[in-house]
Every structure is written in structure tokens, then in C-alpha cells.
């Protein structure tokens, strides 16, 4: 090992092992800019030290950014000038089965032509890094248009380019955030976990459990027997929980000091369906924490299940959500396990307007407060 490598290794090691909650990240989705009333003016850079802007994609041999998304950049630049600790990350997001995208990253010449374009785009728009993510939902991928090793090669080449660019420009290296969703066995063929961890500075891991669309005795799911952000499960054979998903990634070769847990914090609303037979509740919508506050002010009660996860109940409505108490539990989990940090996968899930009367971004503020505690 060369002396420089040893020093680099040592600094990295000390850096990673001496801090908890290195990364507190909020994801701003272009979709939410359209659907919710969230605007860049709502963003508080002190509660979101890392802001991921979603999405950019590959099209016509180039990086394409939705206008709605790129229109927020000038505001972000002002925010960066005011708060030098604020870091901007662009989310490069592509459906795994898209032919043109596949063709780019599996062909060395093509990916080596694309990566410099990515670097230039990031630098020109004052980004501090990129998150590289595959959209893996139902019907999006076919084994014919995916190759687990070429995907890892793509990550390797991006990190190599970032390292070389930092040397030649003298600027801090651009950060590479990998992304893994291995909550389903079907996704296993998509991720070479050890290699993705090796080339990424950090890896965002989707860790929240899936939620049922129908609840009630008819489906053998009692109201208090489920929650879409439970850390642990009390039931044997229930593998749908954050801890199980995290352990799965680590067992496959993940590195805990690089693991950022991503949680979907939208409140899930269910409505009672009246009719013959057993009572049942159907999923009706998701909404943010402010909307939960608005409903709670009309009565009803709150029960806590699993690790202090709240469930709101009234005659017709059941809501599974997160509050300051349940998020504090999650940050404690991250710290106890020595993980890198926390990402809110859609920041419009928080009460960004302060409807609840607890100030703006009460959930992310709770995350920050717990992270700061020794
Ligand atoms: C209902 O769920 C319980 C655990 O929650 C399980 O022990 C039982 O076997 C299930 N019953 C049916 C009919 O699936
Ligand atoms: C909470 O509200 C639900 C629905 O109205 C009711 O079934 C339940 O008994 C209530 N729980 C408490 C502890 O009041």
C-alpha cells in the first residue's frame, strides 16, 4: 500500500467511525413541486443539510432534467451561498428496463462518453454529488435489458471520474450516492451489493415495509397489527420491517457506515367500508403530516404500536403515520446500529407549512435534534 493510500484509508476510517448521523437528507421530488404546495421557498437548509433533487434522466444520449426541477436551481444556489454547509445532490433516475439507458451503461465507450457530461452538468449547476437510482417497480425490468455487473461497472466508472476530476480541478470530490431497494427477493438480481458499496461514498437503502391496501378481520390484519414504518416486528415470520431490510443488505455485503436509511413518511389514510360480513378498512390516500394534524383536531384517538409508531383512529378513518416520537426511535436505531444517517424520501411528507402548529418541518427537526444528541 502506498503512503497516500494508507493516509486516505486512515482519514476515511476515523471520519466514518467517529460520527453518527453523518447524513441528514431530504428528497425534493419534481412531482411534489407540482402536486403539493411545496416550493423551494419552504425549504429550510438547516434541517436538510443534504438536499436531493429528483429527477434527471438519460434520453437522446444526454442528461435530461425536467424544467420544473431545473427552475429551482437558482434558488438553491442562493441558499448555498447563505449556508456553505448545505449540499445539493442530483438524483439520476432511470427505469431499469429502458433500452437506450441500458445500451449506454453496458457499453464502455458509451458510458465513458456520458460520464463527463454528467460531471460537467453537476459542476455547472453547483451540485455536490449525484444519487444514481434504478426505478425497479413492477413491469419495469426484463432480464434482457439489465446486467448486474455492467451496472456496477457504471458505478465504478463514475467514482473513478469523480476522483480524477477532483484531482485536476482541486475542488472537493463530487459525492456518489448509490441506491438499493432489496425489499423483495425479485430485486436480488439487480444489485451487486458489495460492488455498489465499494464505489459509492454512501448508499441510500429503501428500508420501509410495504403496507396492505385492505385491513380488517376479513384479511386477517387487525388495525394495530401493522405499520408501514415499523423498525421491528413482534411476529415470527413477519419479515416486513426496517431492521430486517437493513440486516438483509448488511448480510449481502453492505457497509453500515455508508448506509443511509430512506423512509417514506407519508401518512397512509384508510376508510371504513360498511357492508355485510366483517368490518374492513380500505386504503384511500396518502397525505402529509399537516393533513394528519387537521383531522386530529376534529377528535379521535391515537394508539401506539411496535416501536412507538402512531395510529390515529376515529369512527370512519384510520391513519398510519409518523410523528416526532416515532422518528426519535428511528434515529436512535440508526445511532445504535452505527448507520450513516437518514433520508426522508419525499420531504413534502413533513408539515412544511406548519399547519399542525408545531412549526415548519416538525418531523425533520425531530430527526436533527435526536441526531445532535451525543
Ligand atoms: C392470521 O394471522 C396470524 C398471525 O398474525 C396467524 O397466526 C394465523 O395463522 C393467520 N390466520 C390465517 C387464516 O391466515
Ligand atoms: C379509539 O377510536 C376507535 C374508533 O372510534 C374506537 O374503536 C376505540 O375504542 C377508541 N380507543 C380508545 C382507547 O378510546
Automatic annotation (TrEMBL):
Transmembrane segments: none annotated. GO terms for cellular component: extracellular region. Keywords: Signal. GO terms for molecular function: chitin binding; chitinase activity. Residues 22-374 form the GH18 domain. Residues 1-19 form the signal peptide. The keyword Signal applies. This is Chitotriosidase-1-like isoform X1.
Amino acid at each position: 500500500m502506498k503512503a497516500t493510500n494508507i493516509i486516505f484509508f486512515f482519514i476515511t476510517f476515523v471520519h466514518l467511525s467517529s460520527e453518527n448521523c453523518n447524513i441528514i437528507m431530504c428528497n425534493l421530488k419534481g412531482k411534489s413541486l407540482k402536486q403539493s404546495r411545496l416550493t423551494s421557498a419552504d425549504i429550510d437548509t438547516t434541517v436538510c443539510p443534504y438536499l436531493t433533487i429528483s429527477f434527471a434522466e438519460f434520453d437522446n444520449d444526454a442528461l435530461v432534467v425536467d424544467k420544473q426541477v431545473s427552475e429551482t436551481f437558482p434558488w438553491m444556489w442562493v441558499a448555498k451561498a447563505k449556508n456553505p454547509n448545505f449540499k445539493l445532490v442530483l438524483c439520476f433516475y432511470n427505469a431499469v428496463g429502458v433500452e437506450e439507458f441500458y445500451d449506454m451503461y453496458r457499453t464502455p465507450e458509451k458510458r465513458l462518453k456520458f460520464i463527463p457530461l454528467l460531471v460537467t452538468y453537476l459542476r455547472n449547476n453547483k451540485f455536490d454529488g449525484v444519487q444514481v437510482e434504478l426505478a425497479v417497480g413492477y413491469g419495469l425490468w426484463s432480464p434482457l435489458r439489465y446486467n448486474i455487473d455492467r451496472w456496477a461497472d457504471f458505478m465504478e466508472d463514475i467514482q473513478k471520474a469523480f476522483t480524477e476530476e477532483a484531482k485536476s480541478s482541486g475542488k472537493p470530490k463530487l459525492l456518489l450516492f448509490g441506491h438499493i431497494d432489496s425489499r423483495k427477493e425479485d430485486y436480488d438480481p439487480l444489485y451487486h451489493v458489495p460492488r455498489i458499496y465499494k464505489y459509492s461514498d454512501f448508499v441510500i437503502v429503501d428500508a420501509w415495509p410495504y403496507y396492505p391496501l385492505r385491513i380488517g378481520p376479513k384479511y386477517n390484519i387487525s388495525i394495530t397489527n401493522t405499520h408501514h414504518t415499523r423498525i421491528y416486528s413482534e411476529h415470527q415470520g413477519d419479515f416486513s420491517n426496517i431492521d430486517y431490510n437493513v440486516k438483509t443488505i448488511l448480510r449481502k455485503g453492505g457497509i453500515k457506515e455508508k448506509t443511509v436509511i430512506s423512509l417514506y413518511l407519508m401518512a397512509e389514510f384508510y376508510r371504513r367500508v360498511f357492508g355485510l360480513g366483517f368490518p374492513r378498512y380500505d386504503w384511500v390516500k396518502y397525505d402529509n403530516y399537516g393533513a394528519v394534524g387537521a383531522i386530529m383536531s376534529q377528535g379521535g384517538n391515537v394508539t401506539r404500536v411496535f416501536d412507538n409508531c402512531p395510529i390515529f383512529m376515529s369512527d370512519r378513518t384510520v391513519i398510519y403515520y409518523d410523528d416526532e416520537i416515532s422518528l426519535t426511535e428511528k434515529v436512535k436505531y440508526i445511532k445504535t446500529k452505527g448507520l450513516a444517517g437518514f433520508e426522508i424520501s419525499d420531504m413534502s411528507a413533513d408539515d412544511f407549512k406548519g399547519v399542525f402548529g408545531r412549526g415548519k418541518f416538525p418531523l425533520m427537526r425531530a430527526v436533527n435534534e435526536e441526531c445532535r444528541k451525543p
